[in-house]
Amino acid sequence: MAKRLNMRERYKLMTRLGWETSYQPMDKVFPYDKYEGIKIKDWDAWEDPFRMTMDAYWKYQGEKEKKLYAIMDAFAQNNGHLNVTDGRYVNALKLFIQGVSPLEYQAHRGFARQGRHFTGEGARIACQMQSLDELRHTQTQIHTISHYNKYFDGFHEFPLWHDRVWYLSVPKSFFDDANTAGPFEFMVAIGFSFEYVLTNLLFVPFMSGAAYNGDMSTVTFGFSAQSDEARHMTLGLQAIKFMLEQHEDNVPIVQKWIDKWLWRGYKVLSLVGAMMDYMLPESPMSWKEAWEIYFEENGGALFNDLARYGIKVPDYAAICEKEKDHLSHQIWGILYNHTAAAAIHTWMPDDKKMDWLSAKYPDTFDKYYRPRFEYWKEQEVKGERYYSQTLPCICQTCQIPMGFMEPDDPTQVAYRSTVYEGERYHFCSDPCKQIFEDEPEKYVHAWLPPQQIFQGNCGGATLEDVLKWYHFNVGADNMDYVGSPDEKRWKAWKGLDQEDDELRGTGTE
Predict the structure, then answer these.
(1) Which residues form the signal peptide (predicted)?
(2) Phi and psi dihedrals of 425, rounded to 5?
(3) Residue 401 in contact with residue 394, Cβ under 8 Å?
(4) pLDDT at residue 230, rounded to an integer
(5) Which residues of the chain register pLDDT less than 50?
(6) Which residue of 155, 351, 354, 488 pairs with 149 in a disulfide if CB–CB is 3.0 to 4.6 A?
């Protein structure tokens, strides 16, 4: 009788199916895992800490799908959208489906590509399985949020918007940068820096916020994905340690990539800061609190562990620490002023939210941001709400408009520039400038929305032309939440429109 193999033995067999090619040299079959300078002495040293086989993977994911879709169906059948705390909450989901879900698909494609290009079979298998996870995340997020598309504006063209709309070039350029890197840099960028160090900032506090606001469908897909993210985090750490243990010459290369990609990921997650602090009507924690828990405490312990390899916390982390009291407020100000060309609604926080922000940011909000926001509210009341009609100068690296302040002086706009081959390029921070100067040829070709509009590649020269090219339903997808069709429908569903009629003296007997 044949011996029954245990999980470890089956994993070994599954990940050792490669062979030395004879018709072509191995370097021609796997040409891309050498040029970055990473030295690998023994690919057999790669081992997935979970040792998951394909049959275990399908069973595990199948069970999760049954539970997830049962809750999604129940949410839809019971009109769950009526039970969220406020119609404004849905704008956080709009930003999620426009900015985050396409990144899951980009990650699917990126890991599928790396699954072809590593010489070692263990690394190839790990990439292929993570590629499947990322595709599943894309599908479940679209299925979950499609319920809201039946009742709210701002969801109908999210794939097209991801490619065209100005603020979505921030997350898109992040993955364009990663997917045009070599396979080892991609693993540090996505497998380690984004998945291990930063993804908790998205999937734990924001999903807790979804639950806090009554959206049980979204929180279920979030926590379903997070169980995969835990496995991805372990694999990301394994990838880093594998590179560091293979050769000492790999250490400075890996350190430089960690420095770069932690900053690039941090800038993308600045949008999440605005979602947590401003788009959630009821916020379970602030961006600052989340940063302190998931980066400073958890990330600090990680870098203490990596110190034995010679890896240290990126110098840029000191700037993040200074900005944690300011980041979400500055991003919300940018979105508020440019919402005429954004597929979300914005608003000024009410008194209850202002007081919450004062309590969470006692050293900065009342001093720097409350006066500005109260002035903008006064302008709204007077009918003088300002929508920017101009094109902002954006950072050549992270592609965020120049709306960030100096880390040591929040009254001054941070502005940097450099000249490369006779052309001047602009940046929002020292790290973005440094990243550009390390690889200028990569970033001079970036697709920058304002420049593309000026060059006539976005439908025309006027805002009306550009919004048409965006496929916006003007007045429904963009502008303020107050007075929008979304607000009118929400009030009608909740019976609040009758209160408005009574206040105006137009109610019926």
Answers:
(1) none
(2) -120, 145
(3) yes
(4) 77
(5) 507-509
(6) 155
Q: What is the CA radius of gyration of the chain?
A: 24
Amino acid 236: pLDDT: 86
* pTM, full prediction: 0.92
Residue 509 has what pLDDT? 40
pLDDT score for 274: 93
Coil, strand or helix at 428: coil
d(CA 421, CA 305): 42
Q: Is residue 19 part of a domain?
A: no
Name the residue among 151, 173, 45 with its Cα closest to residue 102. 173
Residue 35 lies in a domain: no
Query: Which domain does 310 fall in, by range?
Result: 60-148+162-492
Torsion of CA 181, 185, 191, 192, to 10 degrees: -140
Alpha carbons 173 and 158: distance in angstroms, whole number: 16
Both structure tokens of 368: 């720097």
DSSP for 20-47, written as a single string: --SSS-HHHHS-SSSTT----S-GGG--
Instruction: Determine contact, residues 290/266, Cβ cutoff 8 Å.
Output: no
Residue 84 lies in a domain: yes
Query: What CATH code is carried by the domain that includes residue 478?
Result: 1.10.620.20
What is the CB neighbour count within 10 angstroms for residue 501?
11
Q: Is residue 505 situated within a structural domain?
A: no
Q: Name the strand (E) or helix (H) holding 456.
A: none
Q: Are 464 and 472 in contact (CB under 8 A)?
A: no
* Residue 154 falls in which region: left (phi positive, over 0), alpha (psi -120 to 50) or beta: left
- Name the residue type at position 298: N
Q: What are phi and psi of 397, to 5 degrees?
A: -95, -60
With the C-alpha atoms ordered 354, 357, 359, 361, is the resulting torsion angle positive or negative? negative
pLDDT of residue 472: 96
Q: Closest Cα to residue 268, out of 279, 257, 256, 260?
A: 260
**Maximum Cα interatomic distance, the chain, rounded to a whole number of Å:** 89
Q: Which two tokens stand for residue 474?
A: 């003007």
Q: Smallest Cα–Cα separation from 281: which of 490, 500, 502, 71?
A: 490
Q: What dihedral do alpha carbons 209, 321, 174, 158 form, nearest 10°?
A: 30
- For residue 275, give the nearest of 490, 494, 97 by alpha carbon: 97
Q: Cα-flanking dihedrals φ and ψ of residue 413, to 5°?
A: -70, 130
Task: Identify the pLDDT of residue 499.
Answer: 65
Distance in angstroms (rounded) separating the CA atoms of residues 407 and 330: 12
When divided into structural domains, the chain yields a total of 1
41 φ/ψ angles, rounded to the nearest 5 degrees:
-95, -30
